[in-house]
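Re: the 94-residue chain
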Amino acid sequence: MCAAALAWCGFREIRYLFDYRETALDFAMPGDLEILDELFGAKRLRQENAFFRMVPIRDLAAQSPRREALLREIESIKALYKGLKVKGVNRKEG
């Protein structure tokens, strides 16, 4: 769900697995960064703002007694995501 929708829904804390830059670089999906720049003139979201606080799940895992296992699981998920092939959509300008 996009950040604006989360803000409108009233979520005060958002936990996320991969940030926009990681998604753009590692998964070849730069769309979110492009939208932020085009619509709002922003290169990134602020981690804390008037609407919500963003919390990386990786940081929570690093604080857990099960740190090593959780961080390995995150890397495993990342490897799975990287293996997915996103098919582009060709739009014809009319």
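Helices lie at 3-9, 20-27, 31-40, 57-62, 67-83.
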